């Protein structure tokens, strides 16, 4: 399984991508809580582990995904989030990482959901997920480039 915890704002994800993100972030929450042995060393979890409170960080991350799902009329279960802080210190993401993720998402959408691809094709400067603050820089070292 390829876990993808997008640094992009969840508003850019199509329905399939949003559901997958919810599922994968819930798995990440289990890993960070020490409740599963799989995926403990997955590179997508590095930045969450670097946060002073990893469970709160993934909880805040999940909260933003939950909010986007609710905006679209989906019924994700809030009680699955172990810790849902109203505010938290942000993590950083490089501008290069965001640009790469937007490129990567567009490549997926060309095949998976061409109509959604058309909606985001004109995005030049994508918004980050609310957990992240954008800083200058290239693609993050933990990213696997495809």
Beta-strand share of residues: 5-15%
In the sheet with the most strands, the strands line up as: 1-2
Largest sheet: 2 strands, parallel
The oligomerization state is single chain
How many domains in all? 1
Number of beta strands? 2
Write the element-wise H/E pattern from the N-terminal end onward: HHHEHHE
Number of helices: 5
Q: Which bin fits the share of residues in helices?
A: 40-55%
Distance between the termini: 15 Å
Backbone shape: globular
Please identify the structural class as seen in this structure: mainly alpha
Q: Determine the mean pLDDT.
A: 92
Low-confidence stretches: none
How many whole angstroms does the radius of gyration measure?
15 Å
What is this structure, in a nutshell?
The chain is 45% helix and 5% strand.
Question: Characteristics of this structure?
Answer:
2 strands, globular, mainly alpha, two-stranded parallel sheet, 146 residues, single chain
């Amino acid at each position: 399984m390829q876990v993808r915890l997008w640094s992009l704002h969840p508003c850019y994800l199509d329905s399939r991508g949003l559901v997958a993100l919810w599922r994968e972030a819930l798995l990440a929450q289990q890993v960070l809580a020490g409740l599963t042995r799989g995926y403990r060393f997955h590179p997508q979890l590095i930045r969450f582990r670097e946060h002073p409170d990893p469970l709160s960080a993934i909880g805040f991350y999940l909260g933003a995904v939950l909010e986007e799902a609710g905006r679209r009329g989906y019924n994700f279960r809030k009680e699955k989030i172990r810790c849902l802080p109203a505010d938290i210190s942000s993590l950083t993401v490089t501008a290069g990482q965001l640009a790469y993720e937007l490129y990567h998402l567009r490549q997926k959408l060309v095949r998976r959901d061409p109509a959604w691809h058309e909606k985001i094709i004109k995005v030049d400067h994508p918004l980050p997920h609310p957990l992240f603050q954008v800083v200058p820089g290239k693609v993050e070292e933990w990213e696997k480039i495809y």
